[in-house]
Design brief:
Layout: E1 6-9, E2 12-15, E3 19-20, E4 26-27, E5 45-48, E6 51-54, H1 73-86, H2 95-98, E7 103-107, E8 123-129, E9 135-143, E10 147-153, H3 164-184
Parallel strand pairs: 7-10
Antiparallel strand pairs: 1-2, 3-4, 5-6, 8-9, 9-10
Transmembrane segments: 164-184
Pfam families: EGF_2, Integrin_B_tail
Domain Integrin beta subunit tail: 74-163
């Protein structure tokens, strides 16, 4: 009756202090709308009945903090993707604690990564480099406003090292030719 937050008098709900609405079902408490920066809905939305309504369509999530299409999304999640997928990078020792906020799905190669056209939610394609100059590819998406998904290509793309035999053969041949030219001169 009256959302459990009020009393009924003559078929009209008289709401408790922190509730409003015809059935006292709308909370006036804004603490659920506070973002990490202590702003209501990250300054990008309004708090209605204890839930953020984001005014900027690029931002989403319970406190309008998630922007999967903004520049910097890839760099922001790089270290966590690196430690979760490859057990390397700066966060490899704190990975369990710091990087359990997304669901990781491994795929064989790049063409198996989800494409923006196939999804009904924003998706970021990322290409990042690790300390060994190897590239890794992944997508970052937020589904249903809260579920974060990362698809990562399970193999690193590393540059091939120089082929040593032609280099050594070229240097030796150059020395021999210079020696012969000096002798014949």
């Amino acid at each position: 009756l009256c959302g459990g937050h009020g009393r009924c008098e003559c078929r009209v709900c008289i709401c408790d202090a922190n509730y409003t609405g015809s059935a006292c079902d709308c909370s006036l408490d804004t603490s659920t709308c506070l973002a990490a920066n202590k702003q209501i809905c990250n300054g990008r939305g309004t708090c209605e009945c204890g839930v953020c309504k984001c005014t900027n369509p690029k931002f989403q999530g319970p406190t309008c903090e998630i922007c999967p299409t903004c520049p910097g999304v890839c760099a922001e999640h790089k270290e966590c993707v690196q430690c979760r997928a490859f057990e390397t990078g700066e966060k490899k020792d704190t990975c369990q604690r710091d990087c359990s906020y997304f669901n990781l799905i491994r795929v064989k190669d790049r063409d198996k990564l989800p494409q923006p056209a196939d999804q009904s939610y924003p998706l970021s394609h990322c290409k990042e480099r690790d300390a060994n100059d190897c590239w890794f590819y992944y997508t970052y998406a937020v589904r249903n406003d809260t579920m974060r998904e990362v698809y990562v290509v399970e193999t690193l793309e590393c540059p091939a090292g120089p082929d040593i035999i032609p280099i050594v053969a070229g240097v030796v041949a150059g020395i021999v030719l210079i020696g012969l030219a000096l002798l014949l001169h």
